[in-house]
Amino acid sequence: MTTTIGIIGVGEIASAIVDGLCADDAPTARGTEATAPDIVLSPRSRERAADLAERHPRVEVAADNQDVVDRSDLIIVSVLPDQVDDVLTALEIPADRTVVSAVAGVPFDRLRALLPHDPRIVRVIPLPAVRERRGVTAVFPAESATVELFDRLGGTVVAETEAMFSTLSATTATMSAHFAFLEVITDWLIDQGWARTDAETIVRGQFVGLGTTLAETDTPISELVAAHETPGGLNAQLRAAWMDEATRARLAGALTAVLERVRG
């Protein structure tokens, strides 16, 4: 990859992208080797940006956001949703640039209105696992440089429409609930007399292997459910008692509510 990557908004996700891109050469999702691109960071979040530049020799901190644009071919915008209007209207982004928006909930039409010179616009949903090159990133629309970039970080799924892209955005709202599920199990063990350190060690050890199963197999998830229980067994008992039809319906309803919020 020869494209220079600019990043405006150096938060946790942007840092994960930089760390993933600058990791030692490793096979990409499509099985080829690639070296780190040149990366130019905006100076806000100065301490975080300076740390990335110190750790990665191909990373520099720009003088300001316009300097990021001027020095980059592909610009990742990773600011908060309520900052995007102010950030983009202050910039001159020419038509030959690609603007990759990692800003949640900001649709194409709004981005287009903020970019009068009509650069290419792509929306993405990067996840923290891009730091380890294991994060699958949702992309809309298909754009070769963007797909290549995020293929290096774990792979991509390209949505056919912005509406379909929004459904993937909604599913990212389940991450904290996943950890809350583990928290309930941990707290239950503590109530049974385990020390917190031991309880968390037990729970982490139990579930880390399940994550590996997801990462290293393509077994349908519905089959993984069956593979991890026996008829009448303990796993089947708990799943039936907890993940009943009413609970499934509440989860689906919560996802629909998040989707409605994402779509505005």
UniProtKB/TrEMBL annotation:
It holds the Pfam family P5CR_dimer. Gene3D superfamilies: NAD(P)-binding Rossmann-like Domain, ProC C-terminal domain-like. Residues 162-262 form the Pyrroline-5-carboxylate reductase dimerisation domain. Its EC number is 1.5.1.2. Residues 4-105 form the Pyrroline-5-carboxylate reductase catalytic N-terminal domain. NADPH binds at N65. InterPro entries: 6-PGluconate_DH-like_C_sf, NAD(P)-bd_dom_sf, P5C_Rdtase_cat_N, P5CR_dimer, Pyrroline-COOH_reductase. GO terms for biological process: L-proline biosynthetic process. Keywords: NADP, Oxidoreductase. GO terms for molecular function: pyrroline-5-carboxylate reductase activity. Belongs to the pyrroline-5-carboxylate reductase family. This is Pyrroline-5-carboxylate reductase. It comes from Brevibacterium casei CIP 102111.
